[in-house]
Amino acid sequence: MSGSGSSGTQNSAAQNNSSLAGGRSYLAIPGPSVVPDAVLNAMHRASPNIYAGALIDMTDTLIPDLKRVARTKAHVAIYIANGHGAWEAAFANTLAPGDRVLALATGRFGHGWAEMAHNMGAEVQMLDFGRTSPIDPSRVEEALRADKDHNIKAVLATHVDTSTSALSDMAAIRAAIDAAGHPALLMADCIASLACDRFEMDAWGVDVVVTGSQKGLMMPPGLGFVFFNDKAAEVRRKLDRVSPYWDWTLRAQPDQFYQYFFGTAPTHHLYGLRAALDMIHDEGIEAVWARHDRLARAIWAACEVWAEGGALRINMSDPSHRSRAVTALSLPAPGASELRAWLEQNAGITLGVGLGMAEPDDPAWHGFFRIGHMGHVNAQMVLGVLGSIEAGMAALDIPRGQGAIGAAAQVIAKG
Question: What Cα–Cα distance (Å) separates residue 263 from each residue in 46, 95, 225, 257?
């Protein structure tokens, strides 16, 4: 009995020693993103007074700094919610049952936002641009010109669809709306893109912006944000009724502290958000965008080399249409799932699943994966992920081109 137990222990130890996944794991999915130590430390404190004192004073400082990230002088409402909650908040303040929206889809999340509009009583007119293309502004203009009676109240555009990594041109969409002479609101889903890809709410003429805390803002999930301009605020004023919780009016301009959140404040998230915004503004938003661009190009350089000698494919073929926050990729099924499993078990790295590229019960689902490179990410994180992917491809005998890591290192070194 003793000998048998000893042998089993040795075998288990040998299996554990064959993995190099010990230590701190790395979450390379497109959200939740890595939470910096500074944010974690800011949240690690006793519960504060929610009626007076430092928390209230600190919360007031968040509003202008959030606007700086979105490049706007408009309004912002904070919700205790995820991105889906921010979607719903945007609709609750701008649409009445029966209103029509023009939904522009470049992947799963464009369809998801449209589904929510439908479920809230809106009539949805869909323009689907597929999974490998950005929004085509000419088709948007054509659809709006055909709406002679201006029944379309809002145009829903996903800046970056997290499922496909498609990046769409918000300024060009605004230009299309204006060229059609249409009064519809332009509403942008920036959940994946804010503080990662360049975004200019005011300069690009976006009326409503939704985002969440768990991606470029480097926070745990739990806070949703809706930015809205005076045009959108006027639409809200004309609605007969808005759900009290989702109403953005007092959240954006509270008379009392509790009105920011329609109740108890998300205390520790607010401390974390303060630290995250400090990090963003210490670096400078232009520098944040430049860092994301350089690191994304390093990932693309490696993937393009791998693709030369194998079947790996970057979903968005044109670099100008790729997000700097997430890269969607494919391998012949079940290669993508096998690669993800190998990395998690042997390198302590979690890659994103191919969300929305195929149904989970379809064997093709195992042919897609995503690399998240958003928020708190630097050169050693990216090179570590790429080197681990290379090791996984070697372990699984996945055909690939040679020199991928060197190509990425050149981008890191030379910009």
Answer: 20, 24, 16, 9
